[in-house]
Amino acid sequence: MQIIAAHNIGFCFGVERAIRIAKEEAKRHGGAVYTYGELIHNAAVIRELEEEGIRAAESLEDIPQGSPVILRSHGVTPQEIERCHEKSFLLTDATCPFVKKIHGIVGEYCERGYHIVIFGSSDHPEVKGIAGWCRNARVVSSAQEAESLPFVEKLCLVSQTTASYEPFLEVTDILSKKAGEFLFFNTICETTATRQFEAEALSKKCTKMIVVGSPHSSNTQKLVQICEKYCNYVLPVSKDCELSLENIATNDIIGVVGGASTPIWIIMEVITRMSELEKTMAESPEVEKVEAEVAATVEQPIPAESEHAAAQDASEPSFEEVFEKTLVRIKNGQIIKGSVVQIVDGEVCVNIGYKSDGFIPRNEFSTDTDVNPSDVVKVGDEIEVEVIKVNDGEGNVLLSRKNVEGKKIWDELMQDEAIQDKVFTGIGKEVVKGGMIATINGIRAFVPASQLSTKYVENIGDFVGEEISLKVIEVDKSRKRIVASHKAVMQAEAEIVRKELWAKLEVGAKVNGIVRRLTDFGAFVDIGGIDGLVHVTDVAWGRVKHPSDVLSIGQEIEVLIRDVDIEKQRVSLGYKQLQPKPWTMANEKYPVGSIVEGRVVRIVPFGAFVALEPTIDGLIHISQVGVRRIEKVEDEINVGDIVRCKVLDVNTEAKRISLSRREVVLEENPEVAEELAKEKADREQQAADRAAERAAAMESAKATRENSPAARTDKRRTRREDSEYELPPVQSATTSLADLFSNFSEENEN
Fold this sequence. Notes:
It is a single chain. By secondary structure, the chain is an alpha/beta fold. 34% of the residues lie in helices and 26% in strands. It is built from 20 helices and 32 strands. The longest helix is centred in the last third of the chain and has 38 residues, at 670-707. The radius of gyration is 51 Å and the shape is elongated. Mean pLDDT is 80; it is low at 281-316, 322-326, 730-735 and 744-750.
């Protein structure tokens, strides 16, 4: 039997890119990442992604608001992207670049007035996404459907990336005659086309074809269809255990191809399984022909004179025949009994009644490799053994006690109908590709790496030599293979603990927890095996932009259970409810006269607001910002600056705190205070001097006014007016004429 594997197997570029992006996002967000639809059409890979916290959601309504969401490689419609933004998803676009190119083509040519036709399956998510980027697109999947389309002036044809190449060419030829102006774009993925050509070439020269991939995968179905055209026997399988041993002959040439959504390790398991089958078929049952060994070849002549004696000797069996009848005939795989002859260096020599004794190597004595044969059996004991090789090349018979022991244990296990419901204690033996080999009661069991723990295991070797609890999850009786899981045991134990915890949860109770993860919409807190959500509005009494403003990952906090939904497995927690309201403690936390420090968060014309804590702001009036008078607050401080201030007043009822930066600067810088005092004294002296000057000037001006001609005229007028009301004095008879003349002259001068 010959096995030929295709050159191009494993994930295609788009799928590999989407899985890498998903794992990076899961690592960045600490798990709990959602994909809109299954990221890949492969159940084994989906299970592996779920173990890393990547969950597939068929509807956007199933995803909590504000969650990290990954758009799968098939792409989505613009309307779905808009809905994601409306639900505040943290969106990561993992759409395959080749699919995005198709989105651009149909969008552009639809705007140019072309009718868009998509070749592919109408129910495929990629085709649905492409159709959403244009208006009234038609989808055809065959030449017959293309023939039914009407004639149009302008037509543009694109293809689903995983479509078959030959049918696409047929549709292209038909539609070219159904439009006045026809454009087509070969958007079939190059990797898909290459795999289809390889599948065609292999199926033409192979007697049987194995197609590895999910039955739900479009490209896998296309490979099956191509192989069935040229090969009479095509077997689609999703994993190695689905391989059938029937209808396979030793002279078969078997080709193996894989879909773009099939990981390389699954394909390699199928190839390995086929290789084991080839080896098994090559080993036909071997039966040793036993020949008598005679020490010396002696001819027994028959006496001529005694014909009767000769006849009698001829009727009796020969020595060779008698010796041969005493020997046992053995074959590979046969189980026989024998007696222990000797034990040397861990190897046991057993007499099995054959022409030569058999030997049990130490590694074939027991399923427990640590057992010393001399501690279990002694010379003369009868034991059951299995023949591994009748002749090991040196004339010895190679035996195994371990296989007999293993078969008995296997039969006992298989008789237990509840084997998959029990938990066994196993021992890690060795690291192999994709996981680890462990023993359950001496039976080898494969534990996949994804089933070793509920978390990612970086070093599988840490489990080697350790006892671990295992649960059987798969039994292949034909291959005598057991697949076990330590993760299933851990999950079952965690589920029991979780149920007990859920039963103890009580609304209104106070519990201690540890902050595990922070998101835009809140903080997830572990309250003893259950994660509860403290919504961002319940983190603090005041408004906070992000929970990280108050909480940090790993912080131990006390929270209040606000609501419990057992059906949806959700717990709503409150943190601020157990914290005192900020302003009730403001008098104690910020006493008048104390020095505080805060960040400038807002500047207004009359001052600056300083955040003392997330919910309490204080005001520095513009007069208290600097040591000297300023025109604008920005002349001294800016938003984001850290400032030290002195508390001048606290009004808890009005929720106001008055602060002074000026007082702190003066207290911490005495030289500045002295300089300001000196400047003040100088200003006061200058003011006094100016006041004195003004008083003197006023006195001078008054005197000047009183001595001016106008002032004297006013005085005379005043005297005349007064004289009208007074009688002139009676002149003495003795007044001389000269005195009268003199008085008259003085009045005229005045």
